[in-house]
Amino acid sequence: MMQKVNIGTGVAFLIFSAVYYFYFIPTQIIGGGGVGYESALLRPDYFPRIAILCFTVFSALLLYQGLKQQDNETLFDSGTERPLRQVGAVVGIAAVYILALDYFGYALTTPIFLAVMMIFYGTRNWRYVVPVALLTPVILDQFFWHSFQIILPEGTFFE
């Protein structure tokens, strides 16, 4: 059964990738000038194209795995609903994070989100949780600012 799921998912993702690459990127991203010595180096569609190409490769690997997998192998076999609840919890936590970003901003919400996710996935040692939760947002903020001059969401609560 998992073989059919992998094949179906791989094909669906490959179709999605093709539609995204050949329709959505050209029609939804305005292709202005680029950054660098030539105007074609870092155009606005550069990162979306790279991301969808990576997604295409992983979709093709999923399809390949589905075609090569034996019928008697089970990739995931669980008699409980626990994995479904875990996925639902992660989606719920991520949704709250995204909504909180607009109100409280990146600097306040991201450390809380990272700490909650680390604890949710089983990391209980505060010597790991606190530094990762506090340093990762700072490093990412500095990376996006110095590399791309992108200001991450600041939130409306403090205005």
Descriptive account of the structure:
The structure is a single chain. The protein is an all-alpha fold and 159 residues long. The protein has helices spanning 2-28, 46-68, 82-104, 106-120, 126-148. Helix 1 (2-28) packs antiparallel against helix 2 (46-68), helix 3 runs antiparallel to helix 4 (106-120) and helix 4 (106-120) crosses helix 5 (126-148).
Helix/strand order, N-terminal first: HHHHH
Give the DSSP E fraction (strand runs of 2 or more residues): under 5%
Total helical elements = 5
Task: Tell me the Rg in angstroms.
Answer: 20 Å
Secondary structure class reads mainly alpha
The average pLDDT score comes to: 83
Number of strands: 0
Tertiary shape: globular
Low-confidence runs of at least 5 consecutive residues: none
Helix content: 55-70%
Largest sheet entry: none
The rounded distance between the terminal residues' Cα atoms is 53 Å
Please tag this protein with its features.
159 residues, mainly alpha, globular, 5 helices
